[in-house]
Amino acid sequence: MTAETILAWYDRHARTLPWRSPPGASPPDPYRVWLSEIMLQQTTVAAVKPYYERFLARWPSIEALAAAEDAELMAAWAGLGYYSRARNLLACARTVVAEHGGRFPASSAELRRLPGIGDYTAAAIAAIAFGEPAVVVDGNVERVVARLFALESKAAVRLQAAALTPAERPGDYAQAMMDLGATICTPRNPACAICPVRSDCRAFALGAPEAWPVRPPKPAKPHRRAFAFWAEADGHVLLVTRPAKGLLGGMRALPTGAWDAQPSLDDAPFPAPWRLLDPPVRHVFTHFSLDLSVACASVRRDNAAGEWWPMDRLDQAGLPTLFDKAARLALRERMTETATAC
DNA sequence: AAATCGTGGCC
DNA sequence: TGGCCAAGATT
Q1: How many cofactors are bound and how (predicted)?
Q2: What is the pLDDT of residues A88-139, one digit of tens each?
Q3: Whose C1' is closest to the CA of A249: which nucleotide?
Q4: Which residue is nearest nucleotide C10, judged by alpha carbon to C1' distance?
Q5: Is the dihedral of CA A297, A302, A303, A307 positive or negative?
């Protein structure tokens, strides 16, 4: 019942998105569905669009993507965040090419085994690209279903979501639920007045749609400090590649010291007359905030561990946003030369 | 299984 | 402006 209403709404109000086929049309290329779904994990549509277009133009097929080098793919992902997605993207592409003949497996169960594909993404690709009536539960669906039935537990939401999922047009239905959640049943100030299923909605009837879904309180973010070192020589700056796992894993970066303790200039990659830029770069991650002080020095270009990167091509290094901020600060200070010696 | 993992936009 | 949030996965 409700599913039909939502599909009818989708037929008239579906968003037009670069990775999407219109309602009722033949399903899009699984490669495109997969690429978009990975990028969209915990990431807004607006942020994904330019990355998706760039990736698709540069790597139009899974074979092309599988042949990419790690460094160029990580650089292309720079700025989008959650960088383990990029590593898993490449691992997944190579697995599909090497073990599945370059074709994505068509079932959610098989998709689920691939790197970077969890319960949600497996169901979404199976439904959208292959027409499997998989139960697709993302943050949008959780919110819509929790409100429709005034449910508090994730388990209850999943059961209801499964009961609601239609055998026909499962891909359109999944996207319809996500569009409904993204444009009408929003986290704050939901547009209940124009909601197609308002009359079926318990949360609306109870007069407090925003009370669902119930979120556990979030712990406070600790604050950390660190130094980043801008070492320049002969028009080049020293960059390192961070370890594959952990924060900003696998990304190019400025050398840094320890994050947390009282940061020390002793953590520099080598002794130099470091000048401290002010103010530090402030950056907020998911679970902590950071003040990154940038220390600059002109040095002799030697065999320090890392890459000496041409400063006039720094935009091609693929620095994540934190280090892009630090680099911009250093380049700006470099023009004005007002740094304080220390 | 709780912690970890980015970033930008919004109010 | 600071907290909240976004088409979650991994360990």
Answers
A1: Binds 1 [4Fe-4S] cluster.
A2: 999 999 999 999 999 999 999 999 999 999 999 999 999 999 999 999 999 9
A3: B5
A4: A116
A5: positive
